[in-house]
Amino acid sequence: MFQPRYSNWAAGEAANPLIPHTAELIVGFVAFSLLFLVLRAKVVPLFEKAFAERTDAIAGGIERAEKAQREAEIALQKYTSQLKDAQGEAQKIREDARVQGAAIIEDLRTKATEEATRISAAATAAIEAERQQAITSLRNEVGALATELAGKIVGEALDDQVRQSRIVDRFIADLEKSK
Amino acid sequence: MGVQLAAEEGFKPPSTADFNLPPVFGDNPFTTKPVFLVFFSVILISTFFIVSARKALIVPSKLQFAGESIYGFVRNDLARDVIGHEFMRFVPYLFTLFTFILTNNLFGIIPFLQFPTMSRVSFPYVLAIFTFVIFHYVAIKHKGLMPYLKEIMFMPGVPKPVYILLTPIEVATYFIVRPLTLSLRLFANMFAGHLLLLVFILGGEHLLQGVIGLKLVSPFAFAFGIGLTFFEFMVQCLQAYIFTLLTALYIAGALADEH
């Protein structure tokens, strides 16, 4: 009914549990080496591959996201700077237009003033010339008329040119004085 | 008959002879239970990890995750953290060491197998010899034979007279103490643990054959045996971890430039 728990197999040899068995040493060596070779060839590389792929998948994803973000930032900066440039340019164009407009107005005003001055001067000169002409002609005509009249009245010929001229001048001076 | 036998002979406490199991086939010493268990462990570990790693998916299945967790533990927490940047060369060895010791230890509490292979001292000896050869080989290759021996025998920065004490201690540490403690620690833990379980379980069985009073005490012995089984589980895992950790530390020491 109850089996003996142990036999006396190699009892003498087994008295000391610290003494190794040759057969077990060989088995241990062979079995462990076998397991080592199998695990090194068939298990470690595959697990390493899975680890590497996983790391790559995670790190690669993060890297891609970072790259996309960097690109978006660069694009944003580009657009912002472009917008700023455009605004600056518009401002500059407006400023230029204002300055140009003012210059044009100033220019036109100057030209108009010059023209006016020129016309006015020409008119003045013409008037003066005509006045001089009128004065001269009037003086001659009036002189001749007056002389003729006076000659007729006094009966005396006043042919002497010098005297005639003196009389006329005096007459006219009197005229102006009486005015 | 058994009851009579037990009654006549009295309780025979478990002894070292309980670990000396006879060959299954005749007198062939290669057919003992420990030998079968060792080969079984090799098949078990290989099959589990090959199936687990076969697909090597980025998003692992449950099986792959289980295998990867164990592999990752040895690779990252033992090899990488202890050895440093050259760790990858030693991962296959440390991984084999850890799974081999763990599986064979756990055989001690797995129903029907119930024998820790590492309680046969030959197996820890073999593993310690592997580690011994590897860490010395790595050190000699890394530092050169003479500088390595000089480093062991004449530790730098020590006053000369101290060498009288220090040199024998250091030499003994590197060439005798390290492999011996490595193997004996594992062996003794498994041996003592199994013996303890035997005491309580065989004792409980013996009490069951006694008079009615002793029969009533017997469940306590069994309960204690079950409690100790859980304790043994912890010890078995711990010893596998310690053996692997110390191997990694010795390799790290062999690669370290400063003493």
Report on this structure:
The complex is a heterodimer of chains A (179) and B (259). Chain A has helices at residues 11-14, 22-154, 161-178. Chain A has 179 residues and is mainly α. Chain A has one domain. In chain A, helix 2 (22-154) crosses helix 3 (161-178). The model of chain A is unreliable at 1-13 (pLDDT under 50). Chain B has 259 residues and is mainly alpha-helical. Chain B has one domain. In chain B, helix 7 runs antiparallel to helix 8. At the A-B interface, helix 1 and helix 2 of A face helix 1, helix 2, helix 3, helix 4 and helix 5 of B.
Please write out the topology.
The complex is a heterodimer of chains A (179) and B (259).
Chain A (H helix, E strand, L loop, with lengths): L10 H4 L7 H133 L6 H18 L1
Helix pairs in contact in A: 2-3
Chain B lengths: L1 H8 L23 H21 L8 H22 L7 H16 L15 H22 L1 H9 L9 H46 L3 H44 L4
